[in-house]
Amino acid sequence: MNYFEFFGIPVGFSPDEAALRRAFLLNxxxxxxxxxxxxxxxxQANMLEQSTxxxxxxxxxxxxxxxxxxxxxxxxxxxxxxxxxxxxxxxxMDMMDINESLMELEMDFDAQRYEQTLRAVEGIEQQLEQxxxxxxxxxxxxxxxxLLPEVRDYFFKKRYLLRIRENLSKFAAAF
Length: 175
Fold this sequence. Notes:
mainly alpha; Helix Hairpins; Monooxygenase
């Protein structure tokens, strides 16, 4: 049973947040170990397991990035990191300038270059999010699997940008 089934909501990138929260709270009352203290040990262990599942499922589906990763995983589009498709060339070309700025910052920190690089990354992130938003809204299961490769590309681009942000954060202390 996947997390969507556990909460009784359809698989998707844009779940009904209120329905998700309601299902989580109902399950919290149903499975919380404190409500089963008089039960036998096997039942207590089962309730603890269900409570843990409830928390992990909610934390995953409530977070947009984790939810995207999870849907791609259950649809079989994220597997062995070595066998993932390469990022598109146009994206990598855009990243070449950013990576050059990172190397320059490593050699000789400059606050203005740092700010320009950070703004460039933010701009790319914003463009990616604007481009993927309609795709995420349009996706439905079943029938929307043709949209998943585009979502997977977005996921990998966003991960790439996250690594760049991590590298930029090293320079923040110098700023």
